[in-house]
Write the structure tokens for this entry.
Amino acid sequence: MEKRKLGFWDIWNMSFGFLGIQFGFALQGGFMSRIFQTLGAEKDAIPMLWIAAPLTGLLVQPIIGYMSDKTWSPKWGRRRPYFLVGAILSSIALLIVPHSPVLWVAAGLLWILDASINISMEPFRALVADNLPESQRSYGFVVQTLIIGIGTWVASNLPWMVSQLGVSNSAESGVIPMSVKVAFGIGAFVFLGSVLFTVFTTKEYPPENMEEFEKEKQKKNSFVKDIIDNIGSMPSTMKKLGVIQFFSWFAFFTMWSLANPALTEHVFKTPAPIESSYDLTNTDQALAFDVVNTAFQESSNSVGSAMGVYGLSSMVFALLLTFYTSKRNINRKFVHMGSLFLGGLGFLLMYYTSPENLKYCFVLIGFAWGSILSMPYAMLSSAVDPKKMGVIMGIFNMFIVIPQIIASVGGINYISGLLGDEAINAMTVAGISLIIAGLCNLLITDKNAISYQPKGN
């Protein structure tokens, strides 16, 4: 079936639900470690508390991708039912997470939140590849990245924004500040609303051969066997992209899990207070704890706001690429390589930066983030069977979650520990990892993946 080229606003509507998905991911990535620390987690234990996120992605995304490939409803389409269900569950989880009374509850709710976000996210990736002709794939994923950048910047700044409006940013020991609770509530509303917008403004193509599609659905194949078979037969380009993804996502997981303790300690000089070091029954000790804890919460807001800048710069990066790719092809390989190099430099500079200049580090990281969210998917979509787009996108997620699992079970602590005991060393490791990811782009040799090749070329 020949797919018609879509205009900017058609692609915008199709991708708008990703605004909500990114609100969920940005709030999770920017503030879950803060919630864990507020509830008493030691900084070395934080990566392990994050293990729920990649584990759920490893399990959920291939299954949802496989199921959505086998789904068709004349009214609801193929992908839309899944990201609608995921949005409802994610919004509920966002409302509950910041009200966690103890650490184990917060860790469990992270598991639920991440699983719900993953139910929504994978079908959105497949939807872009489903609805666009191959010549518009780069353009489509770049527009999606533009929306993700907007979501990252706004959501990362929400606690700071609401505190500027007078919402309290301080709280008793072990209690999440009201500014964080309000921010997560706003995120829940945006998540559901933006996904509903896409559901009601976007149509999907039916299967090309409905009779063949129905026969395929009736087969009694085990979905586990089918997923394993697809893993075994993945194309060479997908494996090479997987190596790039491994180092890229190791770096960003390191940032999400340890940027708050690393930067509040090294850049702002306001580490999280250790409650056991204070006698809270003593008035003077309790007052001293409150002073230190408030300083930590305020610098955490500043770290969150600085992190939001990477969403803003990824948005600018995506906007420039949107204008360019709407008319011309790009060399995806070299765009991705250069972007990852810039992101790696941003992480390395954190060791030397000041609170005032921290945002410039995240500007550089934003170029890497914008490219990570678009270029690998554009390259992948040009190298795989379109009938299996959902399950392939889900399997591709393995290369995202496996490095995060390795990082969470001790990889970050071990590698950064080789550089010393300071938490900031984790950001140095992230920078080195992104530079390695950039160099791995040299492995990509498929001309159609590097840049769309019209038939006959």
